[in-house]
Amino acid sequence: MSDRQTTPPGYIVVEGPIGVGKTSLVNRLAKSFSAETLLEAVEENPFLDRFYNDGRQAAFPTQLFFLFQRSRQLQGLRQRDMFRSALVADYMLEKDRLFAEINLDKDELKLYEQVYGGVAMEAPSPDLVVYLQAPIDVLMERIRKRGRPQERRMDALYLKRLSDAYTDFFYHYDKSPLLIINAAEINPVDREKDYQLLLEQICTVRSGKHYFNPAPLLL
């Protein structure tokens, strides 16, 4: 990589709906930039299996567990030494409220908002947010291929609501530079040419909103 490509933003967040490839990309970016990772420990949530099996009954405790978990992790980030190595994360705190608005009923959401106000804090703003987008059929296929047992009952309607919520959120987002990626046509995790193109974009964007939607490369 060129000299410019070896100086990425210090704190990068990769976001997007379930199945879009956030964590895989985070791990690859961290390796390229010799960065630390901040990852959601989804497997630690004891309510998640029940949520996928019977969403209404387990939605509220599932959401609260994630809220407390994410808040603790990001609290540690605020106390992090600014001179340590770069950091790449696979979530931002704002996603918690986004999921809550989809998963909770009116009364649960009202109670959630009270809890959120008590535990959430102003998390450090990323130096760059990478937002991955993909059509619902692509997300469903990727979820099927990775074969996580708790996601077997994931349906297209839920993913559509989630994707629409992400689209609306990032349409209005302006806290950090934003790079929006068409993750359906390119594969920066498995295809080296795609990945190198994305690296160049990541190391170039320093302000504003940008779209990365290159024509798919022929193998």
UniProtKB/TrEMBL annotation:
<dbReference type="InterPro" id="IPR002624">
    <property type="entry name" value="DCK/DGK"/>
</dbReference>
<feature type="binding site">
    <location>
        <begin position="142"/>
        <end position="146"/>
    </location>
    <ligand>
        <name>ATP</name>
    </ligand>
</feature>
<keyword id="KW-0547">Nucleotide-binding</keyword>
<dbReference type="InterPro" id="IPR050566">
    <property type="entry name" value="Deoxyribonucleoside_kinase"/>
</dbReference>
<dbReference type="GO" id="GO:0019136">
    <property type="term" value="F:deoxynucleoside kinase activity"/>
</dbReference>
<dbReference type="GO" id="GO:0005524">
    <property type="term" value="F:ATP binding"/>
</dbReference>
<feature type="binding site">
    <location>
        <begin position="16"/>
        <end position="24"/>
    </location>
    <ligand>
        <name>ATP</name>
    </ligand>
</feature>
<feature type="domain" description="Deoxynucleoside kinase">
    <location>
        <begin position="12"/>
        <end position="202"/>
    </location>
</feature>
<keyword id="KW-0418">Kinase</keyword>
<dbReference type="Pfam" id="PF01712">
    <property type="entry name" value="dNK"/>
</dbReference>
<feature type="active site" description="Proton acceptor">
    <location>
        <position position="90"/>
    </location>
</feature>
<keyword id="KW-0808">Transferase</keyword>
<dbReference type="GO" id="GO:0005737">
    <property type="term" value="C:cytoplasm"/>
</dbReference>
<keyword id="KW-0067">ATP-binding</keyword>
<protein>
    <submittedName>
        <fullName>Deoxynucleoside kinase</fullName>
    </submittedName>
</protein>
<dbReference type="InterPro" id="IPR027417">
    <property type="entry name" value="P-loop_NTPase"/>
</dbReference>
<dbReference type="InterPro" id="IPR031314">
    <property type="entry name" value="DNK_dom"/>
</dbReference>
